[in-house]
Each structure stands twice: as structure tokens, then as C-alpha cells.
Write a structure and sequence with these properties.
By secondary structure, the chain is mainly α. The chain folds into 2 domains: 23-223 and 336-357, Citrate Synthase, domain 1 (Orthogonal Bundle); 227-329, Cytochrome P450-Terp, domain 2 (Cytochrome p450-Terp, domain 2). The chain contains 16 helices and 3 strands. The chain has helices at residues 39-45, 48-57, 63-75, 81-90, 96-107, 119-144, 158-167, 173-185, 193-202, 208-219, 227-238, 244-253, 271-283, 289-313, 323-329, 337-357, and strands at residues 23-26, 31-34, 37-38. It has a 3-stranded antiparallel beta sheet with strand order 1-2-3. A hairpin with a 4-residue loop joins β1 and β2 (31-34). α2 packs parallel to α16 (337-357), α4 runs antiparallel to α5 (96-107) and α5 (96-107) packs antiparallel against α6 (119-144). The radius of gyration is 22 Å and the shape is globular. Bound molecules: s-citryldethia Coenzyme A.
Length: 383
């Protein structure tokens, strides 16, 4: 082969695919901005509806704009019967991410605008998706617990209604605060794997349902969104906090990845993990035995990992590490963590898709072929 071997960026590491005004991840210093606003300021002062508006439309809404956006979200909360049927028939045994992916794909069949590629239609579809995905995730959780679909309560805010549909009652402040925080922190993160696959699919000019269905499929994996569930499973496996150090040392010695640590872009502490950890510390003295035990394990694991691999290797906790104990403090079951990640990230996926379509270019990278050529075709009977 006389072709010169090109430089290959394995895993597209270090490759820029487009320009964006949606999100800046400054991985060297551990800073994150949505549309120029630091994540700390948004987590402290904002709410999910406002953050979703910011991501999708590019600016913070005025009061009347936010109210109108909230109203549109509320109007989209109901789920069609064929969606609640899919959930009810499968919730007991199927993986919640599989149900969610199937439902979001199926949603396009009840949208008369599904094939309308105008930007106005895509804004409408984004609102529909942001609203309905939360209802779907809540209903999956409810049906897993043996309950039935709870009609949405249109007097409640977005995350309040999520908990209402999940639990069949109004949320307590102890449930609402962590869920709202996680919705804000997970809403967007530049060209992560699920956003990239959303863009790949959308770049063929497939519709937004197809694009975000690809995003959900990609989020599922434990190297990406699925890590929050795996991190908590590790904490359960550790069991007693006094086992933490030995467990982590053994795992590292066996070359295992510690879920919830490491990141392709952050070589400093993930600012989202910092915010989640601070929240966990703030509730530490008032938490259940389960959450207190998980918190102790999480803090001991974090200390060991940071001492061993933080400064020296750039391996720090990411957004998924402390998520488990925090979600458990809100009474959320482990199998709903990744679906909830999707319910939040849908805002980022839609924002990126709409932005990318303004100057669309088919995404089609290359592979360097290393197999044989011009092989002799042998009929099947002679092989
Ligand atoms: C998310 O991209 C985003 O923005 C994603 C996200 C978002 O908001 O969208 O931030 C959400 O997906 C967070 C990441 C969740 N995944 C995990 O927590 C899984 C555990 N972490 C990793 O497997 C890993 O760190 C990745 C997948 C997140 C990043 O992988 P890279 O960039 O491909 O790096 P790598 O796997 O090649 O690791 C580089 C080195 C290796 O050591 P060497 O072979 O060089 O000796 O770092 C080591 C790895 O072994 N390493 C770890 C580790 N992560 C990396 N060692 C132990 N435990 C870990 N968690």
C-alpha cells in the first residue's frame, strides 16, 4: 500500500467539529459556561426552565418570555395513550433507558410537524421533547413501582411536576432541591458523545426525534451517562465505609476504571461535581442512614482518588460521581439516574441540533483501511 498513513485521532480526541455559542468547557481550570454564564451562578440562582430557555434561544428570558415558555412546557406534559401503554407493558422488566429511547422514537408518530424542518417547527418540537421526556421518565419510575400513569399537574413547575408524576404527590423541599440542581447541572456539556451522535444523525437532515433518539442511545453507556448508576453500584458493593480504601486500591491494581472519575476534557476538578459534593455536605447531618453511609464512602473514595490520581494524572471526580447519594436523598431509584440525565440533557441536544442546522454540513469522517485488497474470491463450496 503506497498511501501515506494519515494522523488518526483515536476517539476523535482533540478534534474540533464546529463552532458553537452554546457551551464552553475549560477543562484545564475546571470551568463550565452555558451561553457565557458560569455554571455556579446558574446552579445558585436559576431554575431548569430558565436554563433550558437560555440554551435553546441563546439569552436569559425576560419575565413574560419565561412565563410563556413555562406555559408551553405545561401544555405539552401529557403523554399519548400509546406511550403510556409502552411504558406500562414493559416497565417491570425492561431497562428504563431502552423504554425511554423507544418512547422518544415513537413520539414522532404523533407529531404532525415531525417532518417539518423549519426552525419554528424545531423550536416547538424541542419544547415538546423537553416536556414529554420528563413525563416519560416519571411514568417509567412510577410503573416500575407498580403504580399507574399519573396525569401531570399543570399548576406545578417542570421538576416539581416530574416528582409529582413519579410519586403521585407534591414534592418535599428535600426532594425538589437536589432534582432541580441535577437538572441544571446535566443540561448541557458541549460535544460530549451523546450530543455528537445527535449531531451526526441530524447532519443527514433526519428529523429532531431521530437525532435525539441517537443521543439517548449513546448516553446509556457506562463510559458516558450510565456512569452515575455504576458509581452508586460501586458504593453499594463497598458496603461498609471502612472497606472503601481497600476496594479502590484493589480495583486500581486490577486496572479497573473507577466509575465517576476521569474525563476526556477536564484535567481539573469538574465544577459540577464540586457543586454536587457541596450539596451533599450541606445535608450530611440530616440524611437517612443509607445516604449518610453512601456519603461517607463517596468522600473517602474521592479523597483516595484525588490524592493518588488528581494532580499527578488529571483524574478527578466528574458529574456522575456524587450524583448517586444525592439522588438517593430525593428517594430516586438507581435505574432512573441515566433516564433523568436524558430528561435534563434534552435541552442541550436540541439547542445544539438547532444551532448546527443553521449551517449544516454532513458529518462524515474517514477511516484508514488496514485490511487486504484484491483478494481472490473463492466460491462457497471451495472455501
Ligand atoms: C460523562 O464528554 C462529556 O462531556 C461527558 C459528560 C457530559 O456531561 O456529557 O461530562 C458526562 O460522560 C462523564 C464521564 C462518565 N464516565 C465515567 O465516569 C467512566 C469512568 N471514566 C472513564 O472510563 C474515562 O475517564 C472516560 C471514558 C470518562 C474518559 O476516557 P478517555 O478520555 O478516553 O481516557 P482513557 O480511558 O483513555 O484514560 C486515560 C488514562 C488511562 O490510563 P493509561 O492507560 O494512560 O495508563 O486515565 C486512566 C486510564 O486507565 N483513567 C482512569 C479512569 N479514567 C481514566 N483510571 C481509573 N479510573 C478512571 N475512572
Amino acid at each position: 500500500m503506497d498511501e501515506q498513513k494519515p494522523t488518526i485521532s483515536v476517539g476523535l480526541q482533540g478534534v474540533y467539529i464546529t463552532e458553537t455559542k452554546i457551551c464552553k468547557v475549560d477543562g484545564n481550570v475546571g470551568r463550565l459556561y452555558y451561553r457565557g454564564y458560569a455554571i455556579d451562578a446558574l446552579a445558585k440562582n436559576s431554575n431548569y426552565e430558565e436554563v433550558a430557555y437560555l440554551l435553546i434561544y441563546g439569552n436569559l428570558p425576560k419575565a413574560a418570555e419565561l412565563e410563556a415558555f413555562r406555559q408551553q412546557l405545561k401544555e405539552e406534559r401529557d403523554l399519548p395513550d400509546f406511550i403510556t401503554d409502552i411504558i406500562a407493558k414493559n416497565a417491570e422488566k425492561a431497562d428504563p433507558m431502552d423504554i425511554l429511547r423507544t418512547c422518544v422514537s415513537a413520539l414522532s408518530m404523533s407529531d404532525s410537524y415531525a417532518a417539518d424542518q423549519s426552525e419554528a417547527a424545531n423550536f416547538k418540537k424541542a419544547i415538546r421533547l423537553i416536556s414529554k421526556i420528563s413525563s416519560i421518565v416519571a411514568t417509567i419510575g412510577r410503573c416500575r413501582d407498580g403504580g399507574d400513569y399519573v396525569e401531570p399537574n399543570k399548576s406545578l413547575g417542570h421538576t416539581e411536576n416530574f416528582i409529582y408524576m413519579l410519586k403521585g404527590r407534591d414534592p418535599t423541599p428535600q426532594e425538589l432541591k437536589p432534582v432541580e440542581m441535577m437538572y441544571i447541572l446535566q443540561a448541557e456539556h458541549s460535544s460530549n458523545a451523546s450530543t455528537f451522535s445527535t449531531l451526526v444523525t441530524g447532519s443527514t437532515l433526519a428529523d429532531i426525534y431521530s437525532a435525539v433518539t441517537a443521543g439517548i442511545a449513546t448516553l446509556k453507556g457506562p463510559l458516558h451517562g450510565g456512569a452515575d448508576e455504576e458509581a452508586l453500584r460501586m458504593m453499594y458493593a463497598i458496603g461498609d465505609p471502612s472497606n472503601t480504601e481497600q476496594y479502590i486500591e484493589d480495583a486500581l491494581a486490577g486496572k479497573k476504571k473507577i466509575m465517576g472519575f476521569g474525563h476526556r476534557v477536564y484535567k481539573a476538578y469538574d465544577p459540577r461535581a464540586k457543586i454536587i459534593k457541596e450539596y451533599l455536605l450541606s445535608i450530611q447531618n440530616n440524611s437517612s442512614d443509607e445516604v449518610a453511609g453512601l456519603t461517607e464512602i463517596a468522600l473517602r473514595a474521592e479523597k483516595l482518588m484525588v490524592d493518588k490520581l488528581g494532580q499527578s494524572r488529571g483524574i478527578w471526580p466528574n458529574v456522575d460521581f456524587f450524583a448517586g447519594p444525592v439522588y438517593r436523598s430525593a428517594g430516586i431509584e438507581i435505574e432512573l439516574f441515566t433516564p433523568l440525565f436524558a430528561a435534563s440533557r434534552i435541552a442541550g441536544w436540541c439547542a445544539h441540533m438547532i444551532e448546527y442546522w443553521r449551517d449544516n454540513k454532513l458529518i462524515r469522517p474517514l477511516e484508514y483501511y488496514t485490511g487486504g485488497l484484491d483478494l481472490n474470491y473463492i466460491p462457497i463450496a471451495n472455501r
